[in-house]
Structure formats: structure tokens, C-alpha cells
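Quick entry, no commentary yet.
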Amino acid sequence: MIVRNGRAKCLAMAGKGGTGKTTLSGLLIKYLIKKALTPILAVDADANANLNEILGVEVETTLGEIRDRMKSDTPANMTKNEFMEMHINQAIIEEKGFDLIVMGQPEGPGCYCMANSILAQVIEKLMKNYKYLIVDNEAGMEHLSRLNLRDIEVLFIVSDASSRGVLTATRIASLTSALGVNVGEKVLIVNRAPQDIPDALNSQVEKAVSKTALVFGGYIRQSDEIFRYEVEQIPILKMDGSSQPVREAFSIFEKFFPLYNTAACP
């Protein structure tokens, strides 16, 4: 197993609810698998966890549940660190080309500071075993702090096809500075766009790019095929590579992996 710099490169997906960032996370995983940029650790950090459904895998235990159990179920002969690490490793869902862990939400009351600190330590250890870490995030990106992820190679910020959505994306991009996160590139993706892009939307995108640190990745058009896959609960990994949403998503991702497209990672 070859890992660049001994640690997985972090790619994160963010955006307000309903923009399709989880579907794009699945397409990003599909892209990396096709390019043989594996192994991948995917982390579903969205409060509305459904990345597993997009990928077609079952979840038995979330990290939120483990944090709850740590507070009351840690055996006397085991430290909390040992308890957390053991159960987190058991919670990893192993698939061909990628593994998945689901953050979930803790159910019990009280402070989870110690549990979050241990969680960050365990994730740091896990990152040494993967080439890429994919984080499907909620809009506020608080989980980036909980996981202690201070360096992100690419942050993909997903907007819907509206001027207001693009404006929201610029606000999300600014949150990284408040969290003290170093981001290589912040990439705006406008998802579920009409076939003919309105001039007003193009203008808003150009304004967002000119006035912020955002780079425009591209548009992904509204797709009946994506809708069918989601309604029929067909894993996005099975979508044909010639379909429009896959081609458009891959075209965007291709721009940010120029060093790895023709040769394996050194």
C-alpha cells in the first residue's frame, strides 16, 4: 500500500441541505476508484447520514453511538482510548476500493469533548492506511474540527442552480478561516442546473469567483437518471460512465487531479 507523504489526502464536500453533495461524494469515490487512486476512507459527517445508501452499503454502528457507549460501557480493565479505538475499527465498513465510517449523532446529554478528542486521534491513525480521505460534510463543517482535520487538499462546495444558492456557497467557504482549516483549493460546483444556463446565474458565479477564493469547477445538469437511481435505491457506483451526470462530474474532478491521471501516485 502506497500512501503519499504517509497520510491520506483529505477531500471534503460541503453545501447546504438539498444541493446533492452526498451524491457528488459518491461520484467522487467512483472517480477515484476508476483512476485506481485507492484505498479510500469515506466519512459520512452529515447529520442526515445517507452516504451509505448512495454507495449501497449497510451501517450497523455509527461513531455517535460509540461515543455514547464510551461514557457508560467502558470496561474497568480498558482505557477509554482503547475502548473507542477498538469499536471504531469494528465500525469501519469495508468495500472494494473504499471503506466507510458514519459519524452519526450522539444521543446522550453532556459533554463529548474527551470522546471527540479520542475520535480525532483514531482518525489520524487511520489516515495513514489510505490514499484519500473523503468527508461528506454538513454545511457548518463542525465535524472538520471534531476530526481535527486542519489540512484539506480540495473543498468542493456544492450549490443549487440559483443566485441565492451561489451566495450561500461563498458564505460556507468563509467558514474555513474561522475554523482554522488550511484549504488548498475551494471549488464551487453548481448542481442540478438547467440544460441552458441563465445569464443571471453565470453572472452570479463570475461575481462569486472574482470576489472570493473560490474556483469554479463547473455545472452539473439536472438528471432524471440520478433521480431514478435515488428513488430506486440503486448505488451510484453502478451508474454507467457514459451518462451525463457522471461525465460532467468526472470532468470537474479531472481538473484537480492533474498529477495523478496518467501515472500512479509516487
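second:
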Amino acid sequence: MPQFDITSFLPQLIWLGITFVVLYLLMWRVALPRITDVLETRSERIASDLDKAAELKAQADSVLTEYEAALAEARTRAKATLAEVTAAAAAAADARNVEVTDRLNKEAEAAAQRIAEAKTQAMAEVRDVAVELAQASVVKLIGREVAADQVAGAVDTAMKEAS
């Protein structure tokens, strides 16, 4: 193997030094500046993207704040509208209740009056039937007729005591 030949160590070391220096210069002058440029470009792009992201986040935060304010205002208006509608509905219901109550009271009064009239008429009919029945009973019991005025008076007295 030629690498282990002692007579060729010095030329190998010289070529190693020359190759090392050439590669070092080539890396220093060509490859490293390109790598540095790429890294700087990438770094600048990342920084730019981060700045844009921060701006967009700030815009999104402001839009979110505006949205929340608009939503709160809309809720407040909805509550106010609901309160107004509820108050109007309650007032309308109260007015309707008063109207219905008045109508029902009038109908109840009219019904009470009709009942009183019917009761008076029924009592008059009962009185007439009672007078006839009493007159017929007296005739059967004592065998003679009694004056209608006397029987009517007795029936009236008995009805007054009963009520």
C-alpha cells in the first residue's frame, strides 16, 4: 500500500496541506457565503412572517373586541326590546282582563236579575198552586168552600214564615 510507504510520507503531507488549504479557501470564499446568505434570507423571512403574524393577531384582536362590543350592544337592545314588548303585552292583557271582567260582571248581574225574576215568577206560581191546593183540601176536609181571599191570606202568611 502506497500510503504506508515511508518515502512517500512527505509528498502526501504536502498534498494534504495543499488540498486542505484549497478546500478551506473554497469553503470560505464560495460555500460559506452562500450558506450565510441562505440563512440570513431565511431568518429575515421568518422575522417578516412573525411581524405579519403579530400585525394580523392585533387586527384579529381588535375585530374580536369590536365584535364582542357589538354583540353586547345587540344583547342590550334585545333585552330592552323584550322588556318593552313584555310591558306592552302585559298592559294589553290587563286591559283585556278588565274588559272581560266588566263584561262578565254585567253578564252575572243580568243572570242574577233573570234568576230573581224566575224565582219571583216561580214563587207566584207556587203561591197560586198552594192557594188552589189549600182550597181543595179545605173543601175535602170540612166539606164546604172557603173564600179565596181567606185562603190566599193564609198561604201568604205561611210563605212569609217559611222564608
